[in-house]
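pasting for ref. prot 1 ->
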Amino acid sequence: QVQLVESGGALVQAGGSLRLSCAASGRTLSRDSMGWFRQAPGKEREFVAAIYWRGGSTYYTDSVKGRFTISRDNAKNTVYLQMNSLKPEDTAVYYCAARASRGISTEQYEYGYWGQGTQVTVSS
């Protein structure tokens, strides 16, 4: 069984930066692809970013390209989401997820393990 715990969420002003972390326990995730999703108030959860199991390939939703960077440290069993130039529309609960496959996916149903989420609030 895999447990994922996100941290790093906070209240930040527009234009600011945050780095989210997702620490995994239970087993190594070095062969899983990882993703970040978010859910804003009153909206459905949506894909944000994903990273290949080796960390070489990444994929982002259009609205965060050039501002967010997903990375991973397999030695620490941790995935990160660096968020720069934050906008009020980035306000959401951010979730990390693990997919027991090496390839990248934007589909929530393909991720078998989820964290509890961390709140990011961007004020204007």
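and prot 2 ->
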Amino acid sequence: VQLQASGGGSVQPGGSLRLSCEASGVTLDDHPIGWFRQVPGKQRKAVSCIGRTGDTRAYSADSVKGRFTISRDNAKNTMSLQMNSLKPEDTAVYYCATVTWFGSNCYVSNYDYLGQGTQVTVSS
């Protein structure tokens, strides 16, 4: 199983980036999915999660609501994170993953898959 994230880079505040995650060895639509981010010295945190197709459950961190949009393309077995109005505090390594729900929150359990990270840097 491999989740390959791409699309990270450096952008100025107010700019946009689109992260993509290509899955192999796992069918993303069999799982809820999500994006997480981590800065050095801090725990990885959930950014945005959605359920399987037909499951309306969704989670977005308060800090990204209205700016970030998660989506899936089942035909391509990929997932994406559209990030708009980026801020310096969005700087982090971003990870894609299959996730588990805990109430209205999402996390990466021992039974889930976590991709390698892609660096996003927001700086003027």
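The CA atoms of residues 8 and 120 lie 5 Å apart.
The chain is about 0% helix and 50% strand.
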